[in-house]
Amino acid sequence: MFNKGIYGTTLASEVADRLFSNITAIDAPDQSFLATLRVLLRKRLPQDERLRLVCRELHFTEYEFTTNTASQRMNMIMPDVFRHSTTLGHSIYIIHTTHSDAGTKMLEFVKNNVGKNKRHLSNFNRRDDLQVFYARKVNALFYTDIAEQNTVIFTNKLELKHFHALQMLIPKYLPLLFAGNPLTEMETALLKSTGRKSAAEYEALLAEFAKSLDIRAEIIRSKLAGFETVFERMRANEIRSEINSHQSDYEHYLSLMRDVANKIQECQYSLAGIECAINRQTDDSELMEYFMCNKNLSIIQVCGTAIEVSVK
């Protein structure tokens, strides 16, 4: 079991993340497990299905753990959000502690309270076969759901060498995906290499798989995608900007025209009312009657809205 961290592998690169967007990892100690999963599942996991590797590190002490109720302890180990999410798609959860004494207590609790006919994760079966296989490598408990899509691994510590060794039996964690689809010779060699003392063989095999997947071609496609039409796209953006500017001007002038049209219409309505009032004045008005009745007033002249009179 090698302690060297695996980073910068092509199978966990930004391009690979796009190629394998349905195979992801959260909080993994290095990129090895994710790379291994992508090698093994590239032809086994349908594109419309997802798989997550989740590593959850627990920081509580033995005292903090043992002084809580059973429900509280389970929520410390695996909150509801984690427990519920294991029913969606495929997943591998690795739950480990930073304090070995707390880890020992956690494993005792899990063994007594988790799995079929137990209080928690009753739809998961404990995998004693996996526990026996790893007995000399890592102190852990393994549980796989009845649908054979998800496996949860509880361990009291997770050093890099343990993390690498846990990859040796990935097909056992996801039985449904490997049923009727056995490992190839090269895939088997890759899994076995995760248990070696040196990472050389593992890294060499990863490189071979990356080459067979032609990741380089995908990187080139990713980097040069659209390069040959860059000038056309720039001109297209300029024209779009011009169209937006003209459209803005058009909307502005159209708004002004609407305002002018409304004002013309208001004036026409006012004029029509005045003309009607003018045309209705066929009889003597009150002003006329006033002057006729008042014998002491004489009209000298009328100019516009002014009347010049003399008073006797």
Structure, explained:
- This protein is α/β, with parallel strands linked by helices.
- The chain folds into three domains: 10-224, no CATH class; 228-281; 285-312, no CATH class.
- It is built from 15 helices and eight strands.
- It has helices spanning 14-19, 32-41, 62-66, 70-77, 80-85, 100-113, 128-133, 160-165, 170-173, 175-178, 185-193, 200-212, 215-224, 230-280, 286-293, and strands at 23-26, 51-58, 90-97, 124-126, 140-145, 150-155, 297-303, 306-311.
- A hairpin with a 2-residue loop joins β7 (297-303) and β8 (306-311).
- α4 crosses α6 and α11 (185-193) runs antiparallel to α12.
- The chain is elongated.
- The mean pLDDT is 89.
Provide a compact summary of the structure:
With 312 residues, the chain is α/β, with parallel strands linked by helices.
Topology:
Layout: H1 14-19, E1 23-26, H2 32-41, E2 51-58, H3 62-66, H4 70-77, H5 80-85, E3 90-97, H6 100-113, E4 124-126, H7 128-133, E5 140-145, E6 150-155, H8 160-165, H9 170-173, H10 175-178, H11 185-193, H12 200-212, H13 215-224, H14 230-280, H15 286-293, E7 297-303, E8 306-311
Parallel strand pairs: 1-2, 2-3, 3-6
Antiparallel strand pairs: 4-5, 5-6, 7-8
Helix pairs in contact: 4-6, 11-12
Shape: elongated
Low-confidence stretches: none
- Determine the strand fraction and express it as a percent band: 15-25%
As a whole number of angstroms, the C-alpha radius of gyration is: 42 Å
Oligomer: single chain
Q: Supply the helix-strand structural class.
A: alpha/beta
What's the β-strand tally?
A: 8
Number of helices: 15
Query: Kindly, what is the distance between the CA atoms of the first and last residues, rounded to a whole number of angstroms?
Result: 131 Å
Side by side, the strands of the main sheet go: 1-2-3-6-5-4
**Biggest sheet statistics:** 6 strands, mixed
**Total domains, how many?**
3
Order of helices and strands: HEHEHHHEHEHEEHHHHHHHHEE
Average pLDDT over all residues:
89
